Amino acid sequence: MGQGIGPTRPIESYKRMKWDNIILNGTIVTPEKSFNGNVYIKNEKIAAISSEYLPGETAHTTDATGLHVLPGLIDTHVHSRDGGAPEKEDFFHSTQAAAVGGLTTIFEMPNTIPAISDVEKFKNQIKNLTPKAHVDFAIWGLCLGRLNNKDLAALANAGVIAFKYFWGYAITKDSHQLIYNYGKKSTNVIPALRDGEIYEIFEEVAKTGKLLAIHAENSELIELFSTRMQKTSDLTYKEFLKSRPNIAEETAVQTAISFAKNSGLNLHILHASTREAIELVRTAQKQGYPITVETCPHYLFLDDEDFNELGPKMKVYPLIKCSADQEMLWNGINEGIISLVCSDHAPHTKKEKEGALWEIPAGMCGVETLVPMMLHAVNTGRISLNQLVSLLSKNPAQLFRIYPQKGSLQVGTDADITLIDMNKKFTIRENELHSIGKITAFDGMTVQGMPVGTIVRGNYVMREGTLVSKPFGKIVISNHGA
Known about the structure:
The chain is an alpha/beta fold and 482 residues long. Helices cover 28% and strands 22% of the residues.
C-alpha cells in the first residue's frame, strides 16, 4: 500500500463498479501528509482513495501525473455585489473567477442590496444566486444591532453560515449599506453602534451557536484621526495610515475578545492587518477561548512601501500596514494562530479607484488570485503545501462546520477537488481576470504554482484555466445552528 490509503474492501469486488471519474497518479495532499494515489468518484462523492489501481469501468479518467490533488479549496470572504452594484460584480462572474482560481466553495458576504438581515432576504438571495453559481456557496447573515437582533435565531435555523458585524461603520437607513467615509453632516445614516448595542449582538449570536465575525476597526478613533489628517495637504500613504492606525484595529479586537469571553461567543476576527491583533488573539487562544482570526494575501504580500508603485489600487480596509505587521502575520500562520487565509474579494470599477485617497472606495478584486498567491508562498518557502490545505480547505470547513462534507478527501464526502501544477508560472493580468471589476494590486506580478483543474461534486468546472461547465452550484448549510 505504500504511504497511501488502501481500498476498503477486496480489490476483486470493484470489478463491476462503474466510476464517473478516476483521478490517477497524482500526489494527494492533506494537512497531515502527501502521498501518491488515485481518487475514484461516483455520484458526486468520493467513492474510494487508493495507492493501488482499482478495477471497474469509468466514464472519464484524469491523468494527474506531476500534479497535486488537493481537497477543494474554500474562500470564506467574498463580496460579489449581487445585487445592487452590477457595474462592479455579480455572482455569475465572481463564481467564474473562483472556479478559474481553483476554488470549489465560496462564502458570500451579507452587505448586499438588500442586506441579508432576515430569513426572507436570505431565502430570496439563495434563489437569486443559485442559477448563477459556478461553484458551491454559503451565505453570511448581517448583524445590525437592535434593528435585527430578533431575527438572528431564525436566520441561524434557516442556514446562514455565520454572522458578520461591521464594527466601526455607519450604514444607510434605507438599504443598510456601509458608509466608507462617514461624516457628522451625512444624512440618511445610522451611526456606528455603541458598545452596549454591540454587546447585545454578541449575546444574541451566542444563543444561536453560530460564529460571529467582525470587521474590527474602532470608529471613534478613526473619526478622531481622520479629522486630524484631513487637514494635511498632498497626503502620502504613510500619512493616510495615520487616519486608520494600528490602534484602531487593536482596540476593536481587544474589546471584542472581552465581549466574547463574557458572552460565551465563538469570535472570528476578519482580515487582520496588524501585529497587535495577532498578539491579542494568541493570548486569548492560550487561555482556551474560541477566538480565531484570518488574513488576506494583500496583507501578506504588500506593505506601505508598495504604494509608491501601486497607488490607489491597494487601498483596502483595514489599510495595508508596514513590514513589521506583515511579518507578524506570517508568523501567525506558521504558529497556527491564524486559521485561514481568504480573499476579501471586493471589486470596484477602474473609474472608482481613480482619485484622492480620502474619496475612493476601499477594496480590490481577489477571488481569482487567492490560490495562485498562496501557492506562490509555498514555492517561495513561506508555507508548505500541507499548510495551504489547512488554511484554504480543512480549517475553514471545520471552523464553519461544513467538514468533512467540504474541505476533506474522505470516502463518502463531496468530490470537491483542486488540481495544482506547482511548476506552472503565470503573470497576473487585470484584463484576463473573470470578474467584472478587475482592479487588483497584484496586476503584473508573476507567480509560480497554478490551479489547473477545479472539480465541484465530481464535475469539472475548470480545466487548464478554461471554464468547461454552466452554473450548477448549490447552497451549503452548516451542520449546526440554534
